[in-house]
Amino acid sequence: MEYKRLSKEQFEALHQEFSTFLAAYSIDKKNWYQLKIHHLDQADSILNEFSDLVWNDVLKKNLFVEHLNPKHLFLFECLEDQMNLILVNTEDSSIDFTSEAGISWMEANMHSDSVSIFQSQKKYKNRKQDIFDLIEKGGRLSEGVFYKSIASFLSKTR
Questions:
Q1: What pLDDT digit, counting tens, does each position of 65-118 carry?
Q2: For a disulfide at 27, which of 22, 45, 107, 141, Cβ 3.0-4.6 Å?
Q3: In 3D, which of 93, 92, 91, 102 has the Cα closest to residue 68?
């Protein structure tokens, strides 16, 4: 297995795609049920193969990954050749960036000394694995709203 198996919830969300995947192997609902009961190793192998297929499809796209914790926002733009990072940080112990109030505070205080912003770029060693590692460490895929908003703010302040 190249990545990790999808969760039960992810398989449920991709039910139709998984059914199509099974159909490509001429496995219908009845066959799948029998495989899960009598040939668990083969069923596991199919689940792993589908999971890798999904991860490969997701990770090949240009996407955004966010990792939020109370004092830091790690915002990644994952392009074809490089990963761009915007790190937003505060030393104010009363602020929690994982809360709505913390995000509102950050937006209102972007110009203050209480907020630090750092930008960086990194070439990939292995693009898909580098992005997957971010997700494994707690990052989540996003539409890039925070990243785009802060990048826009930074371009206006230069």
A1: 999 999 999 999 999 999 999 999 998 889 999 999 999 999 899 888 889 999
A2: 22
A3: 102
